[in-house]
Design goal:
Blueprint: H1 9-90, H2 97-107, E1 112-121, E2 132-140, H3 143-153, E3 161-174, E4 178-189, H4 197-200
Antiparallel strand pairs: 1-2, 2-4, 3-4
């Protein structure tokens, strides 16, 4: 059955216009809702970015303070290294004279005794194996005893001393006509004569 529209054409036109306006209104409302959602989304991203920026700024401030502290530590480390270098320079040729004399009493041949003992510490690039020298004068009962002393200067029993030689010797007497031999000798100090105070006096500091 065919529908018959009894309304005048003007009423139908107004109805279409109302529907169009409602459609435009709904479309505008949807656009506003979408715009609001996009705005909220951008605001949330901006807030997250601001929070990240604030966190990074706080991290940068912390790093700046640490850098300042490390700068002070670097200065302290430099002063420490300079002090270590000075100690090592001063003690580079430091001879353990106490240990040297103690070893001398241990290796001294039975039939000899000393009259004088002079030593000096020195080290040069021209003589890298020489760390000092000794001049020793003594007395022995006989020439073989003086020779035993020279052999002691060059033996492994006294590694701090080497290169010993007899500079002079001669007959003499002690007491009531007891014959003896006076002698003078020289030797050099080896690296074994050096002390370890440069290592023991310097405190260990972690890197």
């Amino acid at each position: 059955m065919r529908a018959i529209n009894l309304l005048p054409p003007e009423a139908a036109a107004r109805s279409r216009q109302r529907r169009q306006r409602v459609g435009y209104i709904l479309l505008g409302a949807a656009y506003l809702v979408l715009l609001a959602l996009i705005t909220l989304w951008w605001q949330s991203k901006a807030q997250a970015a601001q929070e990240d920026l604030d966190a990074q700024l706080a991290t940068n401030d912390g790093l700046t303070r640490k850098i300042a502290q490390l700068s002070e530590a670097d200065d302290l480390r430099k002063r420490y290294d300079d002090g270590v270098e000075r100690i090592e320079t001063v003690l580079a040729d430091d001879v353990t004279w106490g240990r040297l004399l103690n070893d001398l009493g241990r290796v001294m041949p039975d039939r000899t005794w000393l009259e004088s003992f002079n030593g000096s510490a020195e080290h040069t690039e021209e003589q890298p194996t020489l760390y000092g020298s000794l001049q020793i004068a003594g007395t022995a009962f006989d020439y073989p005893d003086a020779a035993a002393w020279v052999r002691t200067l060059n033996s492994d029993r006294w590694p701090a001393v080497g290169g010993g030689w007899l500079e002079g010797s001669g007959r003499t007497e002690i007491f009531e006509g007891v014959p003896v031999v006076d002698f003078s000798s020289s030797a050099i100090l080896t690296e074994e004569a050096l002390s370890e105070r440069a290592q023991t006096r310097i405190p260990e500091v972690p890197e």
